[in-house]
Amino acid sequence: MRADLSRFEVVRPRALDEVLVRLGEGGWSVLAGGTDLMVTLGALALPPGRYVDVWRVDALRGITVTDDAITMGALTTYADVQRHPLLQVEFPMLVEAARRSGAAAIQNRGTLGGNIANASPAADSPPALLAYGAVLELHSRAGTRRLAYADFHTGYKQTLRRGDELIARVILPRRAAAAAPVAGGVRDGVVDAYRKIGTRKAQAIAKVGLAVRLELQGGVVADAAIGAASVAPVPLFARTTAAALRGRPLADAIEAAVAAFGDEVTPIDDVRSSARYRRQVAVNVLRDVLAAVSAGRTPVDSL
Amino acid sequence: MIDIELVVNGRSQRVHAHPLARLLDVLREQLGLCGTKEGCGEGECGACSVLIDDVLVNACLVPVGQCEGSRVDTIEGIGADPRVAALQRAFVDVGGAQCGICTPGMIVAASALVRTRPRATPAEIRTALAGNLCRCTGYVRIVDAVAQACGAGESEGGA
Amino acid sequence: MQDGFVGRSVPRREGHDKVTGATAYVDDLSLPGMWHGVTVRSPVARARLLGVELGEGVPWHEFAIVGPDDLPGPNVVKLIDTDQPLLAADEIRHCDEPVLLLAHPDRAMAERGRAAVRLRLEPLPAVTSLDDALRGDVVVWGRDNVFREYRTAKGDVDAALADPDVVVVEGVYETGAQEQMYIEPQGMIAQFDAERGVTVRGSLQCPYYVHAALVALFQLPPQQVRVIQTATGGGFGGKEEYPSVIAAHAAVLARKAGHPVKLIYDRVEDVRATTKRHPSRTHHRTAVRRDGTLVAMDIDFIIDGGAYLTLSPVVLSRGAIHSAGPYRCEHVRIRARAIATSHPPHGAFRGFGAPQSVFALERHLDVIAARLGLDPAALRRKNLLQPGEQTAVGQVVREPIALDRVLDRALALSHWHERRAAHEAFNRSTDGPLRRGIGVATFMHGAGFTGAGEVHLASVAQVQAERDGTLTVLAASTEIGQGTNTVFAQIVADAAGLPLSRVRVGQPDTAVVPDSGPTVASRTTMVVGTLLRRATASLRQTLRDAGLLPAGTGPVDPEVFTQAVARYLADHEQLRGEARYEPPPGIAWDEKAFRGDAYASYAWAAYVADVTVDLRTAEVRVDDFVAVQEVGRVVNPVLAAGQIEGGVAQAIGWALFEQVVYRDGRVANPQMTNYIIPTAVDTPPIRVEFMPPFLGDDAPSKGIGELPMDGPAPAILAAVQHATGAVPTAIPMLPEQLAQVLQEAQS
Ligand SMILES: Cc1cc2nc3c(=O)[nH]c(=O)nc-3n(C[C@H](O)[C@H](O)[C@H](O)COP(=O)(O)OP(=O)(O)OC[C@H]3O[C@@H](n4cnc5c(N)ncnc54)[C@H](O)[C@@H]3O)c2cc1C
Ligand code: FES
Ligand code: FES
Question: Which phi and psi angles does C232 have, rounded to 5°?
């Protein structure tokens, strides 16, 4: 359908400051790669009003590496993520999430900032960002603040971002790189496992998404972080499930963790899937991942 | 409404449009380039695929305001590259086009692959085209055509 | 004619234009002064329409507005019955039924107008399931919600079922609605002129269906209605009957506006409002001997026709005729019903009822095989029809068929026996989440109209010689991707003895081409192709009779031909060959008894699917697919294989991905993001093979367009059954449904 564009005002600044000035005035919304916004516009569901197009703001682009963090500008696209050599090594779940988001054309245009701000519980990058302990940098005329991403989503499509704030950067704290599976099971080191279940194998919105990061010391789970998509009103940071793993030998903790996860997810029925299926699959896939790590198998990826 | 300058298929153009107008509509309605098709208007089908500065995008999701100063290449122009012309011939020879409505988008998407990965495997080709839906072919001959143009010449099967 | 063009994979005629973006589809066209039309639709399934209000804030005086009272003729969509209005007048009978038409010079303003129209509705009870319709508490059509019922029987089914020596196996099988999802949504451009009448251009399969609808609506002489097919981006049956509605809407808007009007559906509107494949439910009760011999079949086949009768009786009849498959069985009883509900009308879709009933039967045979402990391929082989035997409706197979050879070829290509054993060994030994399986379906598909349909159509095709010595094909058959242009050129070139480059195939335009019938039912190559061969022969005969061409049917020197034509045209106004359909001798169909020669010919096939099932997620991946068929002579192997591959992919979608979610009678997933069709990574390599024709190298061609829709779904579900031991009986079988089936099988 054709939207009536005369009711939309757009500015296209190049300077970050100018963006912040507009947002500070109130009543302005952000336009980045447009892969969510333009769909909404086409469905005549985008509220008419004022939009700041940030696509040309260079300060929001680029991936920088320091000793203790990798910092990605909000306009970092899925294609940028996949191409980055260090992300491939240290943050493979994010790279995998990017590879599995939409298809090539969407990956060239969709941004991390947009994916986070859009706050869909089905979004693919959030589970990985949650499992990696990402930090968001929000800018506004009032200043810059940093937030643990795990605290960002507060309810369905509700976040801690104020209307005058822009998501400027996503920061990934660098930790040990994930280890390859070893025979007899990983006893020491970090293991990452990412899963996305969609209705088809490409260009699918997740029915269940899962990012699991485990840090093992002598077969005991020293730390665990689990992010999940499409199983709650928000991208789920599964704290209870992680707690059920922490401090226990992995092999002994699997069933407790799986049970905790079954309680922690609160999926719904919609046109894409059923609550029952989502819960069952989320649980199956988590069990499978944990069992594989514990047995030293590469988990067999789902079809 | 604003004036936007862009280079379409190698020619400088100035268009007068709302910055949120879809690149797709500007191409089709202002520039008369109707080879770029609309199958869904929501980024799912790929019929509207074009290249912006050599990057594959869905023209139905790109606000034209973001194309200022960019190069846009559409199905009408990309055949100037001999590798793409070979791809187009392969589509005809192998039977990669049936009703043809997905074909321009398919070829634009495949051209991005043919240019960057000359020896792509069938699996890579399938992944690269996953954002382009075809309802006629079952993709078999599309994959064969792209494989042929990639110089691989190998087919996955079929008659 | 071994050296001719028929049998060779000459490249698609319009291929170059399609790969360069030069081909113009309806939305690519624009006429001077053209306005844009939109359709206001009902948001509810059933209601009394009390009034229509034009809301505030819209410059209504700039619009052309058409309601039921503004139509130039009867408010009827002319199909089999006249129950369906072009615009709902008093009662709304399904969601998204058209109520009011608007046109405006500006597309966005037209859209604003649509959003500002308010319908005053008084809700009425709707019927949104087959069970509700059959129960009949709410009657939405006729006296009992039954559009049409067919019954046919042979032998003594009850006695055979009661025989103590047989095993009786019962089952119920269901199929869901399916959206055609051609990538080009529907659309039309109409012009109206008080003197010249109506001209409509658009995306359509059957120019003369649209023509008939417009003649009836405008009450004009036929020559004042002109329908031109534009390049059409896929149809699959979806552009068979519905384009008449859009053409009529666009034309009445053009008449009201005094401007040409373009009416293009967007994707959501197209999915919600236009026809889909009929959902079905089939009940099978079968008597079978322990060795697998089929003794009796009792079949009850029901389809959901939606709110109006449209083409449902024809879909029903094809489904019923195919419901007992290519198998020998002495006692058969078939009851078939098309039922009315409050869904938008279901309609033509590749296969036309046969995929539904074939799915049920083939699934049922696997259930029988499992019950008897037989290999599913062996069970089928035992019962396959032989020459001289009869189908369920009493058609004697006169063709020297050897269906076991078709089956054997499919089994050999798929390594059936080795893979079956290997999969069973794998499934027994694995402690992982994956299971593997392989399944087969054997089936036939009758080509052309059912029964006396072709006789009633009495199609005509012509070939015209031009002054430059080229031939122009004049037929109403449309190129919708399946290769009509190319195949026709091959056939005519061979019959004329001329090079391919001397044959032109024009765009179907009712002002120019005769009525060669609709482009449906896999009839184009088989029926119209044959007419063109005869028309060309007759044209040649004319030149011979005039002493301008030597005798013979072989190749002709193009220069000699050109001179012959030039000389002929010096004395005559035009040179045309024409042929009219003649039924093959000895063919008879009794519509009342629902018995006889249902189709002039059948294509025969065996398909094998190899799958992996993930028990964690209940996902199914088709790893390999083999499609073997006998279709008579193949005119163009590449185009034919493309038809099979495309059909297989569409059927994979029907089986595993595509679910039309109706909520309160409305499609709740009308977008490509939530109605999921397979992408390139969801489809396997598809291995297609055509058997040498049973009637030898010069055999006539049979239809192939619909055939590939029949076999894949049952073969895939059979493979899933082999992999998991669970018995899925319904499609679409998305992971959500399979998960449940697997769980039930466990407990
Ligand atoms: C066909 C298709 C397939 C898709 N597949 C997937 C998929 O598989 N997985 C997935 O996760 N998503 C998918 N998406 C959704 C979408 O591509 C992503 O959410 C993308 O990351 C959005 O980024 P964008 O830059 O395009 O956002 P926009 O559309 O530009 O913006 C989205 C929202 O975020 C806000 N916003 C954007 N940037 C900022 C910022 N820096 N600060 C504050 N607010 C901001 C906007 O105001 C808007 O509300 C798909 C979309 C389409 C059309
Ligand atoms: S029209 Fe742009 S992706 Fe379908
Ligand atoms: S050729 Fe028709 S959709 Fe691809």
Answer: -120, 125
Question: Do residues A101 and A121 lie in contact, with contact meaning Cβ atoms separated by under 8 Å?
Answer: no
Are C369 and C314 in a shared domain?
Answer: yes
d(CA C175, CA C185) in angstroms, rounded, equals 24
Answer whether B139 sits within 8 Å of C232, measured CB to CB: no
Residues C231-257: tens digit of each pLDDT: 999 999 999 999 999 999 999 999 999
> Does A34 contact B at CB distance below 8 Å?
yes
Model pLDDT for residues C123-156, shown as the tens digit of each residue: 999 999 999 999 999 999 999 999 999 999 999 9
State the pLDDT confidence band at B153, using cuts at 50, 70 and 90.
very low
CA of B132 to the centre of ligand 2 (A): 9
- Chain C: closest CA distance from residue B133 (Å): 6
Q: Tell me if C672 and B92 make a contact (CB, 8 A cut-off).
A: no
Whether the complex's predicted ipTM is more than 0.90 is answered with: yes
* Interface test mutation site (partner A, options C39, C266, C426, C614, max chain A beta carbons within 10 A): C614
Q: Is the CB of B102 under 6 A from ligand 2?
A: no
Determine the distance separating the centroid of ligand 1 and the alpha carbon of A119, expressed in angstroms: 9
Full residue range of the structural domain in which residue C196 is found: 33-124+187-259
Domain that holds residue A231: 185-294
**What whole-number distance in Å separates Cα of residue C322 and Cα of residue C361?**
9
Ligand nearest to the CA of B49: 2
pLDDT tens per residue across span A146-177: 999 999 999 999 999 999 999 999 999 998 66
- Average pLDDT for residues C87-105, to the nearest whole number? 98
Looking at the CA of A103, name the nearest ligand. Answer: 1
- The one-letter amino acid at C564: A
C433 close to A (CB below 8 A):
yes
Instruction: Provide the pLDDT confidence category of residue B157 given band limits of 50, 70 and 90.
Output: very low
Record: contact B100-C233, CB cut-off 8 A: yes
We report the CATH number of the domain holding residue C223 as 3.90.1170.50
Structural tokens at position A175: 């930790």
Strand A28-31 vs strand A143-148: parallel, antiparallel, or unpaired?
unpaired
Is residue B82 packed enough to be buried (19+ CB in 10 Å), middle (13-18) or exposed (0-12)? exposed
Helix (H) or strand (E) holding B77: helix B75-78
The answer to whether the Cβ–Cβ distance between A200 and C434 falls below 8 Å is no
Residues 6+ apart with CB under 8 A from C524: C477, C482, C484, C487, C703, C705
Dist. CA B16–CA B33, nearest whole Å: 16
How do beta strands C434-447 and C601-614 pair?
Answer: antiparallel
The yes/no answer on whether domain B79-150 falls in CATH 1.10.150.120 is: yes
From C259, C293, C320, the end of a domain falls on C259
C248 and C321 in a common domain:
no
Side by side, the strands of the sheet bearing C225-229 are C64-66, C98-104, C35-41, C261-264, C187-193, C197-202, C225-229
Instruction: For residue C675, name the pLDDT band (cuts at 50, 70, 90).
Output: very high
Cα gap C230→C99, rounded to integer Å = 27
pLDDT of residue A184: 58
| Ligand 2 atom at minimum distance from B44 CA | 3
Instruction: Give the Å distance between the CA of B132 and the centre of ligand 3.
Output: 10
The CA dihedral of C529, C534, C536, C539, to the nearest 10 degrees, is -160
CA distances from A110 to A78, A101, C249 (A): 6, 9, 39
Q: Can you say how many angstroms the Cα of residue C267 is from the centroid of all Cα atoms in its chain?
A: 20
What is the model's pTM?
0.97
The answer on C681 and C615 residing in a single domain is yes
Q: Which of A143, A172, A201 finishes a domain?
A: A172
- Of C173, C304, C618, B130, the C-alpha closest to A274 is C618
Task: Report d(CA B69, CA B2) in Å as an integer.
Answer: 13
Average pLDDT over residues B43-67: 98
